[in-house]
Amino acid sequence: TVNFLYFCDLFFKAEVEETLKRIQAHKGVIGTIVVNAEGIPIRTTLDNSTTVQYAGLLHQLTMKARSTVRDIDPQNDLTFLRIRSKKHEIMVAPDKEYLLIVIQNPCE
């Protein structure tokens, strides 16, 4: 059973890496960050200071948005968050244990 679980873990990690590579290859994508439930970045294509800034702030914003959605309807949950500014478009896909953050140029 341990070998099977280990294999599944490796397969999952490889699948995640492949998905992140596909996202990063899209035209206009500046960077991707994967953040754990505590708001700690665990995978990034950006420099350290940018990663820490985006991860911390977007984790807080996503948790607040999720809480707001649930306050409006306890049976509902946040599935996606998109922020568009003059300079960037930030997309956040929250999961139970992780957040996927993608930063891209808004005109792409």
TrEMBL record:
Gene3D superfamilies: Dynein light chain 2a, cytoplasmic. Keywords: Cytoplasm, Cytoskeleton, Dynein, Microtubule, Motor protein, Transport. It comes from Pelodiscus sinensis. Acts as one of several non-catalytic accessory components of the cytoplasmic dynein 1 complex that are thought to be involved in linking dynein to cargos and to adapter proteins that regulate dynein function. Cytoplasmic dynein 1 acts as a motor for the intracellular retrograde motility of vesicles and organelles along microtubules. GO terms for biological process: microtubule-based movement. It is found in: Cytoplasm, Cytoskeleton. Belongs to the GAMAD family. It holds the Pfam family Robl_LC7. The gene is DYNLRB2. This is Dynein light chain roadblock. The keyword NAD does not apply. GO terms for cellular component: cytoplasm; cytoplasmic dynein complex; microtubule. One of its GO terms (molecular function) is dynein intermediate chain binding. Residues 16-104 form the Roadblock/LAMTOR2 domain.
